[in-house]
Amino acid sequence: MTSNRHKLQRAFTLIEMLVVMIIVAMVVTLIVQGFGYTLGVYQRVVKNQNNAYQQVFAYDWFTSSLQAQVAMRPKDRGLEGDAHQLNTFSYQPLLAQQGLKTRIGWELVDQNGELQLSYREANNQFIVQRWVGAAGHFEYLDEKGQWVARWPLEKSELQPLPKAIRLVVNSGRETFNYVAINNTRLRAEVTAEEVMYGRD
Fold first, then answer.
1. Tens of pLDDT along 132-171?
2. Residue 97 to residues 67, 79, 91, 93, 101: CA-CA distances in angstroms?
């Protein structure tokens, strides 16, 4: 009886072994590909998240510094800007103490195909945001509700501030709009003494 049982048992054939090895190889390949795809998705999510955080910081810095501008007074400089740069006084500078009237500036520079948004205050200047292969410009909202490319519109003794300042960046299929609405007076309250003698 025992010898008959041994005769009934048989080993895997070469073809069966090859089929098993092919199935195992296919399963391993699918697992590796899935892992690689998951890792790629994770890296893209992290990169987009970092870009989103940077965009939020840049927007917050841009708007907070320009929402508290100081209206022009006699013998005092006001907002001066065009499509690529602007200079103004603000009560909310990024570096100096909040509430102090401080001269600040924002500038757009195309550096080797990379659009750079930089901030200037006193002797300090640093890059706030970068866009690869993008184009951008500043715009100013006048009293008629129209966006213009330069401020002031005309030279006068007391130029009002624009209602808002907008930074428009076109980056491929995406368009970014940073809009800073001016929360302070557009025109300063000027006394008769200031008209005659200016400010100290």
1. 899 999 999 998 999 999 999 887 767 889 999 999 999 8
2. 16, 20, 9, 7, 9
pTM of the model: 0.71
Instruction: Give the ranges where the chain is alpha helix by DSSP (H).
Output: 2-8, 14-66, 192-197
DSSP class of residue 170?
E
The DSSP output letter for 71 is: P
For residue range 22-76, what is the model confidence (pLDDT) as tens digits? 888 888 888 888 777 777 766 776 666 667 677 888 899 999 999 999 887 777 7
Spatial contact of 57 and 117, defined as CB atoms under 8 Å apart: no
For residue 197, how far is the Cα from the chain centroid?
Answer: 43
Closest CA to 187 of 79, 95, 103, 104: 79
- HSE, CB side, 13 Å, CA atoms: give it for residue 59: 12
Distance CA 11, CA 109 (A): 75
Q: What's the Cα-to-Cα distance from 139 to each of 51, 61, 168, rounded to whole Å?
A: 24, 17, 8
